[in-house]
Design a protein that fits this description.
The complex is a heterodimer of chains A (about 475) and B (about 210). Chain A has about 475 residues and is an alpha/beta fold. Chain A is built from 18 helices and 20 strands. In chain A, helix 9 (about 250-270) runs parallel beside helix 10 (about 295-315) and helix 10 (about 295-315) packs parallel to helix 11 (about 330-345). The chains are: A alpha/beta (about 475), B alpha/beta (about 210).
């Protein structure tokens, strides 16, 4: 059971058998060996070649299994992420689960008016503050694509907004290595220097291959930069099953795993022992509409494979939760996002992102985010499992109360009832008292919560001199880019 | 021997081998190749298009039928001397400079191809001058530009500007697509059309070709 996720007092979950894991690993090795990848980066191609890869006459790089074994051997099996205050906040290992928002949605769904519009800097700052305030959200991402700044500056300004509006660790998207360098500079200013950042990472960098089986220049450049600077990084294929990967779950996993392992090999060749986060996701093509869909059952199965493989490889895992393909914050969104969150928790995925995505990642819903905060809390409670020690089996209490008695007045009840799950949004009152309190629907309660967070939540501020340093990095980047 | 009508059914069933066999047999028996295309093969793909619209058939099945039709057309073409093979129009398509993403673009290419367009696919990371050269060479009615990255979207405008500079802008319609692209962006850069998905891209091209 070393590959299954084990939680609390005994909850266990697995998607694949050990034999299936070996079969997938073998298929991925065959893909890297027999098909090969195209590497659009000279240094990377050279590193792979010197490490034992074979480059054929068509320019494809074939990676033998021995290189994968070597990389799996040198890569750490766990990563701690630190918050902006230098406190350990996320422990990516075993079946620990952590949740965070998503990046770069195109459309902001106004939670108060229902209007769909482009994100402004102010709205992104507000949304990050909401993530900062919600207790079940462990990390922040950039939320929305800024429509009111120069396109070349979007990733840098998003990062400055994350630092200024939250203490939580981040997962970062950056268009190229120079952008990552500026982001690293800002993070170092916030946490107390480059050396500290290198040893106590505050953010994870998100890199992707271009499927099928291509390693684009920018992604590889970022991957190598991350390896060198010990920035935790993934190499996560976003499979579009039926287009960029085989249509079957196993086929998609075999190819995406090959791509992730190829990224790992390159990463470990650059800097053995640098932290790497294993994982990928899927959004199968709907064969009628040609739309790539989030949160369908096959994707949840794929994530089960990712999590089992990550433990098989002893690597921390990366995945998804709390997202939907629905166009609105509606019943479909809630059904899909809740299912993904509960499944992700059971699967034991270490770092799950995209909580608040609707319309398969094009739109961001803060209402969904707030609701998911409570759903995550419910899921985390389930992961504790069932305590079966004598105190919890409570035979003594049964003896005390006896046939026909009532546990309400017993000391055992008073001692343990607070351990039970408590809602932050759900309503457990009677119909009449609910009605007397205004008959507020869940949606209204969510909006009230959002309003109060937006009005009242003050993230721990940055020191003024740190703000200045961050603004200086932004200004220098603008000067460099001639903006 | 199987008839021209059977050929239509084999295209619908996406049975490449039977399409090839029947086309070859009909040609050997002296049947007019243009008649084979127009009355046997094309009605098959048209019926497939209808069934797709009705929701009884999915894109992968449409692709397989298109391949079956093409296998027949290729055989028939060998027997046609000089005559123009009918098509719905020529489109030059590519992912713009700096962008390696081709899934969406390939879907559009495949579906246009299946719908009878002559598609000239320039691939990925295509610089503006390559689009210009292709327009000069293939004289398409439509140029299709794809981008997945927000950072490469400006390269779409560069192609439109290059078309203007080369005095080719009036001769082609420019359509754009890709996840971050919108109608608003199409309007902003002066493109003639935008489609949010591959099926609508085909509709759009049929409308403006």
């Amino acid at each position: 059971m070393e590959y299954a996720s084990k939680h609390g007092d005994g909850i266990a979950f697995r998607t694949l058998t050990l034999q299936q894991l070996k079969d997938i690993h073998s298929a991925s090795c065959r893909i890297l060996d027999e098909v090969g990848v195209i590497v659009h980066h000279d240094e990377a191609a050279d590193l792979l070649k010197r490490g034992g890869a074979y480059i054929d006459s068509n320019g494809r790089t074939h990676v033998p299994e021995a290189m994968i074994k070597q990389a799996l051997h040198s890569a750490p099996s766990r990563i701690t992420l630190y918050n902006r205050l230098g406190e350990p906040a996320i422990w990516m290992e075993k079946s620990n689960v952590h949740f965070g928002a998503g990046s770069d949605t195109l459309v902001y769904l106004d939670p108060f008016t229902g209007e769909r519009r482009d994100w402004t800097t102010e709205e992104v700052a507000n949304a990050i503050r909401v993530v900062d305030a919600l207790p079940q959200l462990d990390f922040v991402m950039s939320m929305g694509l800024l429509s009111d700044v120069d396109k070349r500056m979007i990733n840098r300004i998003q990062y400055a907004l994350m630092l200024k509006n939250s203490v939580k660790p981040q997962v970062v998207i950056a268009e190229d290595a120079p952008t990552v360098a500026d982001i690293t500079e800002m993070a170092a200013a916030a946490v107390g220097g480059r050396e500290k950042l290198k040893n106590m990472p505050h953010f994870v960098l998100y890199c992707e291959p271009t499927s099928p089986l291509q390693l684009p220049f920018e992604s590889v450049d970022k991957l190598l930069y991350a390896a060198e600077n010990k920035i935790p990084v993934n190499f996560a294929c976003g499979a579009v099953e039926g287009a960029s990967t085989p249509v079957t779950v196993a086929g998609a996993v075999a190819q995406a795993n090959a791509e992730a392992l190829c990224g790992l090999v390159l990463h470990q060749l650059k800097n053995p022992g640098a932290p790497f986060l294993y994982g990928f996701g899927g959004s199968p093509l709907d064969m009628r509409t040609m739309v790539a869909c989030y949160a369908v059952p096959e994707v949840l199965l794929l994530q089960g494979c990712v999590c089992d493989l990550s433990r098989f490889y002893s690597l921390p895992s990366w995945g998804y939760a709390g997202c939907s393909s629905s166009k609105d914050f509606d019943e479909q969104a809630i059904a899909e996002a809740t299912m993904f969150t509960v499944m992700g928790a059971l699967q034991g995925c270490n770092l799950m992102h995209d909580v608040f995505y609707i319309e398969s990642g094009r739109t961001g819903s803060l209402e969904l985010l707030v609701l998911m905060d409570e759903v995550i809390s419910r899921a985390r409670h389930i992961l504790k499992g069932v305590n079966t020690t004598p105190e919890y089996l409570a035979v003594d209490a049964v003896k005390r109360v006896g046939p026909g008695g009532n546990y309400l007045g017993d000391a055992h009840t008073a001692k343990h009832f607070r351990e039970k799950w408590q809602p932050t949004l759900s309503d457990f009152s009677t119909y009449s008292s609910w009605e007397a309190a205004g008959a507020k629907s869940m949606r209204e309660r969510i909006r009230e919560r959002l309003r109060s967070i937006m009005q009242e939540h003050k993230p721990v501020p940055l020191a003024p001199e740190v703000e200045e340093k961050i603004d200086a990095v932004i200004k220098q980047a603008k000067d460099r880019l001639g903006i | 021997m199987a008839s021209i009508k059977d050929l239509t059914e084999f295209v619908i069933q996406a049975d490449i081998e039977k399409v090839k066999e029947t086309t070859a047999a009909l040609l050997a028996a002296g049947e007019d190749p243009l008649k084979i295309i127009n009355e046997g093969l094309i009605p098959g793909i048209n019926e497939v298009g209808e069934r797709f619209k009705e929701g009884n058939l999915f894109v992968p099945e449409m692709m397989m039928s298109a391949q079956a039709m093409k296998a027949g057309v290729d055989l028939a073409k060998e027997k046609i001397e000089g005559a123009d093979i009918p098509n719905a129009g020529t489109i030059v398509i590519g992912t713009v400079a700096g962008d390696l993403h081709d899934i969406g673009k390939n879907l559009v290419s495949m579906m246009l191809d299946s719908s009878g367009f002559n598609v000239v696919d320039l691939g990925v990371d295509v610089p503006a001058d390559k689009f210009i050269a292709a327009v000069k060479e293939h004289k398409p009615s439509i140029v299709g530009l794809s981008a997945l990255l927000t950072t490469t979207m400006p390269a779409m405008k560069e192609v439109i500007d290059a078309l203007k500079e080369s005095n080719l802008r009036d001769q082609v319609k420019v359509v754009i697509g890709g996840a971050p692209v919108s109608q608003a962006y199409a309007d902003e850069i002066g493109a003639d059309g935008y489609a949010p998905d591959a099926a609508l891209a085909v509709e759009l091209c049929k409308k403006i070709a």
